[in-house]
Amino acid sequence: MSNMVAIVGRPNVGKSTFFNRLVGTRDAIVDEFSGVTRDRHYGKTEWIGKEFSIIDTGGYVTGSDDVFEDEIRKQVQLAVEEADVIMFVVDTMTGITDMDNDVANLLRKQDRPVFVVANKADTNERKMDASEFYAMGLGEPYPISAMNGSGTGDLLDEVVAKFPKPQSDPDEEAEELPRISVVGRPNAGKSSFINALTGSDRNIVTPVSGTTRDSIDTHYKAYGFDFTLVDTAGLRKKSKVHDDLEFYSVMRSIRSIESSDVCILMIDAEEGFHSQDLNIFSLIAKNNKAVVILVNKWDLIEKDHQTAKKFEKLIRSRINPFDDVEIIFTSVLTKQRIHKSLDAAIRAYENRKRRIKTSPLNDYFQTVIAKQPPPALKGKYIKIKYVTQLPTKFPSFAFFANLPQYVKEPYKRFLENKLRDQFDFTGTPVRIFMRKK
Ligand code: GDP
Ligand code: GDP
């Protein structure tokens, strides 16, 4: 799991501008591949070789003016609970406001590292003004301009130095067992699902001491399954205070997703497929993790022989273009298809690890590309010479061509679909790169 940095602060200080500066280009590239809705408030970035997640809490503030302050207070509290480092953004053009002081009071009462980011310091004069924020009692302010980028490097040097955790990626760890997490909106049935798996027989589960604060993994071994359930403790001892906040469920989801190989995404059948469900799906895809979708509480749905088919079709249209995913209709209540869901999760895990040898890959694509070559652009013919799978933790493929920059997104998608037709990559994101040959 990578380290998490939260950006907090009142509205209009430049949080989202700053967020975009930090994750901007990289985020856009990732989105191009995942193809799904862009989550503008969460991204991954890297500074001097240290990768971290960054979340703009302001992006999740909703509600009218009167609930605003309360909402910001909640977000800050959550950021403090969940993030490793807090960046508190203030505005050198306005100076300290009452709301800044409110936020500062919250932040002083806890011991997570906080950086005061004095934004809009575009000029030398405003850089000087930044020292005013020293009065908030949160240490030396860092003058930056989110607009032109000045000052951000010095700030990030200090931020990454505060990371508590060594760089750890579930894929890098020696552990061979698949790491599976259960994610979804509040009330979808996640904890019931986990309890159904683990609660009945104490012998089949062993707690594994968590590497991070408040995460306790569980080793599940029974009925032919052998895997690690990620962060089940967090699910079982629910935070009633925060349960209603989308931001909270996003934070929890990010933590679970980043530390697993496969995510079981639970949807509440009675609620249908929400935009929040799509957001979580997109977080999974963005992190290149495998996924299985469970439509839970299927027992509550009045149905005929078409109902499941229609539901499935609707979900596929929403998650398009990454729709090569297993969708399973479950009832945790009646224990319907619980083991089938685990089977699908393991299959997705295997597919994510699948390696295709260069020779069958090229044999296949030679025919495919000969039949339907990339369309010529500006009178130039594009020749794809060969393809190879890259040594990444999830399936990614490099196609070598004379003019790689001329191969557009639709053709890349065509190549991905052809790849999926021939080899089993169900449940796993696949990335296609064009390289110069
Ligand atoms: P948020 O509500 O905290 O996310 O703030 P935004 O990122 O939406 O920015 C609020 C306003 O401040 C926008 O008009 C930005 O263009 C402006 N802004 C953000 N960063 C800077 C900066 O570094 N310098 C200046 N001059 N303006 C900025
Ligand atoms: P979580 O917030 O995602 O962990 O959801 P819970 O596991 O706490 O479940 C929320 C509510 O839905 C509880 O009252 C469960 O008993 C109920 N529930 C969970 N799964 C099912 C199901 O398959 N069928 C029905 N009818 N109720 C379910």
From TrEMBL:
Q: What is this protein called?
A: GTPase Der
Q: Which HAMAP family match?
A: GTPase_Der (MF_00195)
Quaternary structure, per UniProt, is: Associates with the 50S ribosomal subunit.
Main function = GTPase that plays an essential role in the late steps of ribosome biogenesis.
Give the EngA-type G domain ranges: 3-167, 178-353
DNA-binding keyword on record: no
Residues noted as binding GTP 2 in the record, renumbered to the chain:
184-191, 231-235, 296-299
Report the PANTHER family cross-referenced here: GTPASE DER
Q: Recorded GO terms, molecular function?
A: GTP binding; ribosome binding
Q: Which domain of life is it from?
A: Bacteria
